[in-house]
Amino acid sequence: MEEKLKAIIKRIEQSSLSVEEKSQLYATISSGLQASIWPTIMQHVPKEKMDVIAALPKDKLSALEFAKLIEASIQDGMALAEIDDVTNKLLDEVDAALKEERI
Amino acid sequence: MSEATGETAAPVELKKNVVGRVAERVGKFLSETYTIKGATAKELQKYADTYDRFTGDQRAEMLQYYEKVAQKSATWKVVRNWVATGAGLAVAGAAVAFGPAAYSAVMAGNLSGWFAAEAATFKGAISSPFIGDRIKNIWSWITHPAILK
After folding, report:
1. Other Cβ atoms closer than 10 A to A93
2. What is the pLDDT of residue A90?
């Protein structure tokens, strides 16, 4: 993802877009990437444990137990491989969209 | 603030500019990805509501924990920051609840302060006269959101 994203950033930087448009594009890409991980994470988070934690009163909420939910979701490596795939595909969409705009 | 409610995703006219068109394409991809993964607004809402109940100190504690999780993947080094800060939850909620049009509207800059604040972050990042620094700054801001609310 890093190389792909940096190549896109370089093209945008070298384009004739205004600073305003560039910053909005980066916000679009950034938000899109960040949003793209959640379907995969939700798919791998242990649902029964999530339900138990969600039902706890605030004074019983443990950041550690919540963090362990995410750890459980990524432990076997599958979720991260899927996330890597999705983020790269999202960047492919951005790349194609920019090419259509001749950027 | 509960982010994944879709409350800000009111239908608005998309800007017919580069940003709007790129946002539309990204929104379509997100919506299709969510459909394939079977994610529901209800699951996202449950996660987001629970996350919202943690304080800034507790979220910092989560990030510290994630940094120790034994995963050598470069993807995890990026994702852990997003997960710890809840980055993208609001957009995820809008994409699931309302589909690509709502996401595109948000991203085209027609709505609300949080998108404007994010765009302002990047305006700061691209102020250096050196393209190498600008690329580094933008990459850094995208992959390491620093704000723990």
Report:
1. 18
2. 95
Strand residue runs (E) in chain B: none
Residue A74 to residues A27, A77, A82, B46, B72, Cα–Cα distance (Å): 27, 5, 10, 19, 12
Question: Between A and B, how many residue pairs show a Cβ–Cβ distance under 8 A?
Answer: 203
- A-contacting residues in B 104-133 (Cβ below 8 Å): 106-109, 115, 118-123, 125-126, 131
Interface predicted TM-score (ipTM): 0.88
Burial of B48 (0-12, 13-18, 19+ CB in 10 A): buried
Q: Where do the structural domains in chain B lie, given as residue ranges? A: 18-143
pTM assigned to the model: 0.85
In chain A, how many domains are there?
1
Query: How far off is chain A from B11, nearest CA to CA, in Å?
Result: 18
* Cα–Cα dist A59/A67, whole Å: 17
C-alpha dihedral, A5 to A6 to A8 to A11, nearest 10°: 170
